[in-house]
Design goal:
By secondary structure, this protein is of the alpha+beta class. The protein has one domain. Helices cover 30% and strands 12% of the residues. The chain is built from six helices and eleven strands. It has a three-stranded antiparallel beta sheet, with helices on one face. Strands 1-2 form a two-stranded antiparallel sheet. A two-stranded antiparallel ribbon has the order 3-4. A hairpin with a 1-residue loop joins strand 8 and strand 9. The chain is elongated and about 90 Å long. It starts with 5 loop residues before the first helix and ends in a 12-residue tail after the last strand.
Length: 279
Amino acid sequence: MTRQPRSARSRGFTLIELLIAVLIISILATLVTLGVTKAMSYAKQVANKVEMGQIEQALGVAALEMGRVPYIPSYIILLADKNAYQNYAGTDKPYADMSFRILSQMFPRWADGGTATWPQGKLRADQAYIFFLWGNNGNGFAATGSDPFTVSGGKRFGPYYDFKQSRLVPDAKGFSQYRDYWDNTNGFLVVYSQMMVGQSPPPFIDTPALPPVPSRQFQSAAKYFQPKGYQIFSAGKDGIWGATGYGVTPFVGFVKNGDGSDADDQANFAEDLLGKPMD
């Protein structure tokens, strides 16, 4: 029998060697993919948090410029004529009165007897902040004249924030919601003003896609999570709100739900995800 020289046999790979090589490459590819996916997810988490901070700052600037109002409300009833507020008969009449007071302070010429062309309706916590920061399709509001929503009218208030058009989702009336960086179907940023926090029962939550108004209390009766300013929330990567994370009972956002649905929720007042326990 003629034996093949060793040097000739060493030039190729056995089937086992090839399988081992393929396995190693697959493992390395999986690790790289997981690393990239995790990095991309963390980048969205950071971008989402940064945007919350930017919106919070913009709201403060808007409130200061538009008549130095104490806050931009997170629920507003828009009626074109000021007299319609006096005759308002809804169960949320206190919020109609509040809306008129705030709008009158922001736009005194309108309160003197003008008629605004803004759409009439109720702006929820996922819409009101966009209205005040964005105005009419990014035009802001007229600082002079009786109609704050007209393009003409002298110097303008805002816009105060550059909302990305691709993430704005308008309804039939033109009131928009704003998708967060996770870009889920129901992943809209929700903003509650400090004056709205702790209202119980909240009369203005009319969609299951929004969390109830958070309590003023955070973890204990003595600790406030954001005593001034705005509470800004995101449902996180899964686009699902935690079942108990935003109840009108003391805030329990840092306690994981049994189903884990709040584990990736985010807020502007929390450095980490809400589902993670506090140190």
